[in-house]
C-alpha cells in the first residue's frame, strides 16, 4: 500500500473533516472559559458526590418514603 500525502481540505464540508480540522488545542489554550470550566468541574464534583450520597442514604430514603406514605394516606381520606 502506498502512503497518500495528508492534505487538509480547503473547505471541510463533511462533519468528520470539520472535526478533524477544528483547532481545539488553540481554543483551549487561548480562551479562559475552558480552563475555568475544568477547574469548576473539579471543585464541584466532590460537592455533588457528597450531596448525592447524603440524599440517597438509607435513612433519608426511608424518611421520604414515610413522608410520601403519609401524604398518600391524607389524600385518600
Number of helices: 4
Overall geometric form: elongated
| Secondary-structure element series | HHHH
What do the pLDDT scores average to? Answer: 88
Q: Please give the number of β-strands.
A: 0
Evaluate the radius of gyration. Answer: 26 Å
Level of helix content?
over 70%
**Fraction in beta strands:** under 5%
What separation lies between the terminal Cα atoms? 80 Å
Note poorly predicted spans. Answer: none
Question: Structural class, from secondary structure content?
Answer: mainly alpha
Largest sheet: none
Keywords: Membrane, Transmembrane, Transmembrane helix
Transmembrane segments: 32-49
How would you summarize what this structure contains?
This protein is mainly alpha-helical and 77 residues long.
Write up this protein.
The protein is mostly helical and 77 residues long. It has a domain at 30-76. 74% of the residues lie in helices and 0% in strands. It contains 4 helices and no strands. It has helices spanning 15-21, 24-30, 32-55, 58-76. Helix 2 crosses helix 3. The radius of gyration is 26 Å and the shape is elongated. The model has no long low-confidence stretch (mean pLDDT 88).
Amino acid at each position: 500500500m502506498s502512503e497518500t500525502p495528508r492534505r487538509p481540505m480547503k473547505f471541510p464540508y463533511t462533519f468528520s473533516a470539520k472535526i478533524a480540522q477544528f483547532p481545539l488545542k488553540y481554543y483551549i489554550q487561548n480562551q479562559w472559559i475552558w480552563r475555568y470550566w475544568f477547574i469548576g468541574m473539579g471543585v464541584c464534583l466532590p460537592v455533588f458526590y457528597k450531596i448525592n450520597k447524603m440524599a440517597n442514604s438509607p435513612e433519608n430514603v426511608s424518611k421520604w418514603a414515610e413522608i410520601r406514605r403519609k401524604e398518600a394516606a391524607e389524600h385518600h381520606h
